[in-house]
Design goal:
6-stranded mixed sheet, 481 residues, 30% strand
């Protein structure tokens, strides 16, 4: 019986040991299945924005290489960015095409000179006609002025010879028979009172009628003089206008000929001869266009097999000019750069690194992108060198920041995973809890949340195992560093 009890105790101990081992193993498996996380709390950080872009060294002083338009380019002898010296060959023009163009210009010049001769002949005839028209207009208008002046002078003479009112009355008295009859009756020795009164009454009525008649005749004479004076002025104005118009037509006749003016035709011939002279100079140079300054080839507009345009064929940057570094940034970077900001520049293979280069201009291009320009004074940097720029711009200091690895997104909603301790049947465990947040700003390393999104005591998942998804309510364990 005793041995039976000892054996039972022994088996029970083995069983307990087995259960302990199973518990440890199961707890290990359970813990192993939990995602391992690193937790942190919010910190205060200054966010920065790093702006990177490729650029090229240019110069303010550029000289266009202009070639007469319309010539076939046989060969472009340089490439963009190539260093050139005075006398280096830039372009080779097609000589056969140049000869043909010179021949075409000769034909055009002869045709335009023939037109000018026709205009000269037509102009001479037109001038003769205009001279005659001017003479006719002057003679005709002079006659009208003379006739109007004659009428005016006659009206003045008639007005000036008109008697005074007293003379007018006396003359009327002499011609009025009734007046003379009554006058004689009133003057006889034995004239009665009735005869004298009859004379006085008649004279008074006659004087009133004569005063009215005198005023009307005098007014009519003054009006005739005024009308004559106005007619003379009108005739003189008409004469001036007629002569002026005829003089203008004469001037036009001297300048015009056919469908265009002689001056325009002469200018056209002059331009054609200038163009021919330039073509002859190019032919004398065997169609070669040489560089006239030391520098670097900029933009090349001319293409082999195409004709030169009326703009510059290419641009050469002056090697002695002021050097500029120029880069193009995306539109969204424009708000982060401003005149006076500094940048660092690095050039291929680490040959040169410049710090504190000041931005002198910030411009917007047609596509909305941003062009940044800075001056370079380092003598070892050459025009045409390609480099990389870097601008680090502070965008704000925030009290509630988290690492970018701690921010999650679900359907456009941003959230963080807080780690909370929870009591379970297996003891205290860490649980991940989802909390929505709003992002205020961010840079390459940190995300700034709106103030109050997290407290300084709350711990959030800053990093986790990439192969294990963490959701709201997921049990997690801390990763041992």
């Amino acid at each position: 019986m005793r041995k039976y009890k000892e054996r039972a105790v022994k088996y029970f101990a083995v069983f307990l040991l087995f259960m302990l081992v199973c518990t440890i193993v199961s707890r290990g498996i359970y813990a192993w299945q939990m995602p391992k996380v690193v937790t942190e709390t919010v910190e205060t950080h200054t966010l920065t924005r790093k702006i990177l872009a490729d650029g090229v060294v240019l110069t303010k002083e550029e000289a266009p290489v202009v070639v007469e338009a319309g010539i076939l380019v046989e060969k472009v002898c340089v490439v963009e960015g190539q260093k050139v010296e005075i006398g280096d060959l830039l372009l080779q023009l097609d000589l056969e095409d140049l000869d043909r163009l010179i021949g075409d210009l000769d034909l055009q010049i002869r045709a335009e000179e023939a037109k000018l001769a026709e205009l000269n002949a037509a102009g001479a005839a037109a001038v003769n006609r205009a001279n005659q028209d001017l003479k006719d207009a002057s003679d005709s208008s002079a006659g009208a002025v003379s006739q109007a002046d004659g009428v005016y002078q006659a009206a003045r003479r008639e007005r000036d010879s008109f008697p005074s009112e007293e003379q007018y009355r006396e003359s009327a008295y002499q011609k009025d028979a009734e007046y003379q009859k009554l006058l004689q009756a009133s003057r006889k020795k034995k004239a009665t009172k009735e005869e004298k009164e009859a004379f006085e009454f008649y004279k008074k009525s006659l004087d009133a009628a004569l005063a009215e008649s005198y005023a009307k005749e005098k007014q009519a004479l003054d009006a005739a003089v005024a009308e004559g004076e106005a007619a003379v002025r009108e005739a003189n104005m008409s004469r001036e206008q007629a002569v002026k118009q005829a003089q203008r037509e004469l001037e036009d006749a001297k300048n015009n000929g056919g469908s265009g003016t002689k001056l325009e035709q002469q200018n056209q011939i002059h331009l054609l001869k200038e163009k021919k002279e330039k073509f002859l100079n190019l032919k004398q140079a065997e169609g070669k266009v040489f560089c006239e300054l030391s520098g670097f080839v900029g933009r090349i507009m001319a293409q082999a097999g195409e004709r030169t345009a009326d703009t510059s064929a290419l641009v050469v940057s002056d090697a002695a000019g002021e050097k500029l570094f120029q880069a193009i940034l995306p539109q969204e970077e424009k708000s982060y750069v401003a005149i006076g900001d500094t940048m660092s520049l690095s050039f291929p293979k680490g040959t040169k690194h410049l710090n504190g280069v000041v931005i002198e201009a910030v411009g917007e291009l047609e596509d909305g992108s941003c062009q940044v320009t800075a001056k370079i004074s380092d003598p070892d940097i050459m025009i045409g060198d390609l480099g990389k720029m870097e601008i680090i711009k502070e965008i704000g200091r925030y009290a509630c920041t988290i690492p970018k690895t701690a921010l999650f997104s679900d359907g456009g909603t941003d959230y963080v995973l807080l780690v909370e301790e929870q009591e379970t049947i297996l003891g205290a465990e860490l649980i991940a809890r989802k909390r929505k947040v709003k992002v205020a700003n961010q840079d390459e390393e940190y995300v700034a949340l709106e103030d109050g999104a997290l407290t300084e005591e709350e711990k959030f998942v800053a990093d986790s195992e990439l192969d294990k998804e963490i959701k709201d309510g997921t049990r997690v364990r801390l990763r041992e560093e």
